[in-house]
Write a structure and sequence with these properties.
6-stranded antiparallel beta sheet, 19 helices
């Protein structure tokens, strides 16, 4: 029956297509593109299946046009359904959208029914092809509904069971064409429910889209004889179905506009939050005097992050001169987690963070990593019991390796539940870069100050040596003459011996002072660290035994040669060993008396460690200052450690002092490999 009501529906739906195209070009949203394609197929279906005067393919003489029209209708419903539920099915190593294996058998069903068999059910075994094809789509539909998505699983399974079971029953006893209408109706019902559960708002776009999709599902009612047998009721229902495309298109356009408005509002809020966050980080005053002062600000830095970012927990670990990471600040964690993180930081190798294979970007294009902490956890680690085995981390990358990291834990539940974006992490990444830059500048400034200090001390030492050498020579000469004089009583001889002893001690001190100022002569050579340390062990093992000191030597395999003056390096290590022996000798008789000499290669540096079990430094940063008063029970007022630092500086190395827990200390000598 000719019904000119179909022409306005076709025209209106066609006129709405440019609106979908414009929306997609503005937003580049995949869902909007799928809606645009869905209504393109809907328009093609109208053209092929609606009787439009002389353009009429609804008779039985055009089977393939009918098959194409039914296929376009199925594709249209599937595209809307897939846009609202883009879940994927795992097939081996591939992950395929559920909508593809779900709709493909339906299209094959329509082509066979209308194109091959011209709507007439075949007889014999060929008839069972259609129930088999329907079973495939029904099985994929059940799997799709069982996946966790926006729609509750029980609702999806219920709808799939009702429509799928009804269509399968109709396929077996009521004809082959009606199951396609039932399947398409089921798609639209699921899509209508998804609109409600996905967007969860009472807006015009949601309401019109929901009602339009329900109207598109009305062909289900035509399968009931009470409705199909009434001409007027059936005609009104058909007109409602025809106009449902227009209603649904209008609703989805409004829905896309509402989503765009919400997205713009969310972007403005995110920009405002990011601006406030950046302002808070900019107001943070970072110490640039010494590394120790910078590291003490760790808790303040983490507290500002917790107050201004999306994260409720933050921790800062920094690489120390000892070559190990240390937790310098934390906020938002309980005491047990903070202690466990402090212990964990010491186990992270200086050149092993982030661990390859245990980290990946938290957001594409972001420097923030999702780090698995399992490689550094020990059996029975407290962090496992606290369920803190992974975290987000922003590495603070130095020229050679990571020199620290900003760990981020749980997010604030009250701020927003939206997924993380690059914009959320960018202020924190800029803060981490600033922290790294300031800390590197502080370290360079500290080295420059030390270099200038040693240069000043060296020049002063040279001047003092020149001024004191001549009087000292006169004192030694006359004291030697008096020593050889006859008829000296015992009291006078003791006085002369004291003069000679102190004068010789002063000459030794002046010679040491002059060595601070003197630069090495000759080119540096490649020196084998294992051979040098083994030679020192052989020469001084007896001295350690005589002093009742336990000496341990550990050299890592495959240590490269270092570029330095060999004799100077030997002298530096000897000064450190002498200092360590004096430190442990001040211990009581029942205390541990151990000196350890170790060598290892870390990245592009070779590290020699001289550690002892004696008293710790009160101020490790001043251990290499010449003539510092005794600290921690160890006399550092001599020039040994100062000479050691000067030697390392002349050989483009670095010397540092660290404390080992509550007892013990170590001197670290770092040199460049040859």
């Amino acid at each position: 029956m000719q019904d000119w009501y179909q022409i306005p529906a076709l025209i209106l739906t066609t006129l709405l297509l440019p609106a979908f195209g414009r929306l997609y070009l503005r937003s580049r949203d995949t869902r909007t593109l799928l809606w645009f394609l869905a209504f393109c197929f809907a328009v093609v279906r109208m053209v092929l299946l609606y009787p439009l005067g002389i353009w009429d393919f609804t008779d039985a003489t055009h089977p393939w046009q009918a098959a194409a029209g039914q296929s376009c209708g199925l594709l249209s419903s599937a595209l809307i359904l897939g846009s609202l539920s883009p879940l994927r099915l795992r097939l081996g190593k591939l992950r395929v959208l559920y909508v593809i294996p779900y709709i493909t058998p339906m299209i094959a069903y329509a082509i066979l029914v209308y194109g091959v068999f011209h709507g007439v059910p075949p007889r014999g075994p060929l008839y069972w092809i259609f129930p088999a094809i329907a079973s495939v789509s029904l099985a994929v539909g059940f799997l799709w509904c069982c996946e966790k998505g926006s729609l509750p699983i029980w609702i999806g399974v219920l709808v799939c069971s009702v429509f799928g079971g009804f269509a399968f029953w109709v396929c077996l006893g009521r004809g082959l064409s009606r199951p396609l209408a039932l399947a398409e109706s089921g798609n639209h019902v699921i899509a209508a429910l998804l609109v409600l559960f996905m967007f969860r708002r009472f807006s015009s776009g949601v309401i019109i889209s929901f009602l339009g999709l329900l109207c598109l599902a009305c062909p289900l009612l035509l399968t009931f004889p009470a409705i199909s047998s009434s001409p007027y009721l059936a005609l009104d229902l058909i007109r409602l179905i025809i106009m449902a495309d227009v209603i649904t298109a209008l609703g989805l356009i409004l829905l896309a506009l509402e989503n765009e408005i919400d997205l713009n509002r969310a972007n403005r809020e995110r920009e405002h939050r990011a601006r406030k966050e950046m302002e808070a980080y900019t107001r943070l005053a970072l110490s640039r005097r010494r590394l120790e002062d910078f590291d003490r600000q760790g808790n303040e830095i983490c507290q500002i992050i917790v107050e201004n970012s999306r994260f409720a927990q933050a921790a800062l670990i920094l690489l120390q001169p000892s070559g190990f990471f240390q937790l310098t600040g934390a906020a938002g964690f309980d005491t047990a987690t903070t202690k466990a993180l402090d212990t964990l930081a010491a186990r992270i190798p200086a050149y092993g963070f982030p661990a390859i294979g245990f980290s990946r970007p938290a957001v594409p294009g972001s420097q923030t990593l999702e780090v698995d902490l399992e490689p550094w956890l020990t059996p029975g680690d407290d962090l496992r019991g606290l369920k803190f085995t992974s975290a987000l981390a922003i590495p603070m990358l130095g020229p050679e390796s990571a020199e620290g990291a900003l760990f981020l834990g749980q997010r604030h539940p009250c701020k927003t539940d939206a997924p993380l974006r690059h914009d959320d992490l960018l202020p924190l990444e800029m803060l981490a870069a600033r922290l790294q830059a300031v800390r590197s500048q502080t370290s360079m400034l500290e080295k420059l100050i030390d270099s200038e200090k040693f240069a000043g001390v060296g020049q002063l030492a040279s001047n003092v040596t020149q001024q004191l050498n001549n009087p000292l020579t006169v004192i030694l000469g006359y004291a030697s003459l008096l020593e050889d004089a006859p008829h000296l009583d015992e009291h006078a001889r003791k006085g002369i011996d004291a003069i000679l002893s102190e004068a010789r001690h002063m000459r030794t001190t002046l010679q040491s002072l002059s060595q601070i100022y003197c630069s090495p002569v000759g080119p540096r050579t490649a020196v084998s660290v294992p051979d040098l340390l083994a030679d020192l062990e052989n020469l001084h093992r007896a001295e350690f035994l005589q002093r009742s000191i336990q000496f341990r030597l550990r050299v890592a395999p495959s240590i490269p040669r270092v570029l330095c003056h060999g004799q100077q390096l030997r002298q530096a290590v000897l000064h450190c060993l002498q200092f360590a022996m004096e430190a442990v000798e001040n211990q009581g008789l029942g205390s541990e008396r151990t000196v350890r000499l170790e060598a290892s290669a870390e990245g592009n540096r070779v590290q020699i460690v001289v550690a002892h079990s004696g008293p710790a430094f009160h101020h490790p940063e001043r251990a290499f200052d010449p003539y510092v008063p005794p600290t921690g029970g160890v006399d550092t007022s001599a020039l040994g450690l100062s000479l050691c630092a000067a030697i390392l500086r002349d050989n483009e190395g670095r010397a540092s002092a660290v404390n080992l827990g509550h007892q013990g200390a170590a001197i670290l000598l770092e040199l460049q490999p040859a």
